[in-house]
Specification:
By secondary structure, the chain is mainly alpha-helical. The protein is built from 12 helices and 2 strands; from the N terminus they run ααααβααααβαααα. Helix 1 packs parallel to helix 5, helix 1 runs antiparallel to helix 10 and helix 2 crosses helix 8. The model has no long low-confidence stretch (mean pLDDT about 85).
Length: about 280
């Protein structure tokens, strides 16, 4: 495998993990524009632990993910009291606060960035992405997954059936924070350098768009959307200056033809029927 192919597959694996971090809140109808902020927490926390305290890479990355999840749990209560556009604005503001702090924090390099000593290759990152996908499959079929879907359909009726809506939403938000922290830690230890500017709101918006384009109705949607946003720009790389014009046109076309996402429950049901008939 060439170095270029390995680099693209590694980035795809990280993007898949980040997509599932945004998918869990979206499954409950919550637009979280702070995913990149949680990625930054995971990246910087794990980098400091592996650089300064000489923790092993698995322990440092796991601890970074826990730090991001802990912060998601801490801010989730007040943030999730907002709804719709106000929730998106609250998480967007959180993302900018985190980025602003990191850019001005000299102990981790400030705006110049922070070098990461440890390095991870494709194999362990791909294994983490596969594990996150299996976790998402399990969550999608669990009571939590069914409750999230019910909340997305009608929050009031779901509460009448005995589901503790705030707790369920907070659980999804917290798990999403953990996964985002994991993606950030893997990113930092693969590219061996992190900077606050990378974890911008634009990154959060791109992650959310990949999930929406792939489809929020099924577990497969985020992975398909992440693959679309990662691989299609590389396919258009030969078009030089027209590369991102073609990519944007492809996104608009897909959203116009498939506003419900590339993968829906109806699609999976039809596929199951075809398999049974075959």
């Amino acid at each position: 495998m060439s170095g270029y192919t390995a680099a693209i597959l590694t980035l795809l694996a990280i993007n898949i993990i980040a997509a599932y971090a945004a998918w869990l809140p979206l499954a409950a109808g919550q637009v979280n524009l702070g995913t990149a902020g949680f990625m930054a927490i995971g990246a910087y926390s794990s980098a400091v632990l592996s650089n300064e305290l000489e923790w092993s890479l698995p322990m440092a990355i796991a601890a970074g993910a826990v730090c991001a999840g802990g912060l998601a749990l801490a801010i989730g209560g007040p943030v999730l009291r907002t709804r719709g556009l106000y929730l998106a604005l609250a998480t967007l503001a959180f993302n900018e606060v985190v980025r602003g702090i990191l850019i001005n924090l000299d102990v981790v390099g400030g705006a110049a960035g922070y070098p990461v000593i440890g390095h991870l290759g494709l194999a362990p990152i791909a294994a983490c992405a596969a594990g996150v996908f299996l976790l998402a499959l399990w969550l999608g079929g669990s009571r939590l997954g069914m409750n999230l879907h019910a909340i997305e359909q009608d929050e009031t009726v779901t509460a009448l059936f005995g589901v503790h809506v705030p707790f369920t939403q907070l659980a999804a938000f917290t798990i999403g924070g953990v996964l985002a922290g994991l993606a950030g830690g893997l990113y930092g230890h693969h590219f061996s350098f992190i900077e606050g500017q990378h974890f911008s709101v634009l990154l959060s918006v791109t992650i959310v768009l990949s999930v929406v384009l792939g489809g929020t109705q099924t577990v497969w949607g985020p992975a398909i959307g992440a693959a679309f946003f990662t691989l299609l720009p590389e396919i258009f790389r030969g078009a030089a200056a027209w590369r991102y014009v073609l990519f944007a046109a492809a996104v608009i076309l897909v959203m116009a033809v498939r506003p419900q996402g590339l993968v829906t429950r109806a699609d999976l049901m039809r596929l199951r029927r075809v398999v049974r008939l075959a």
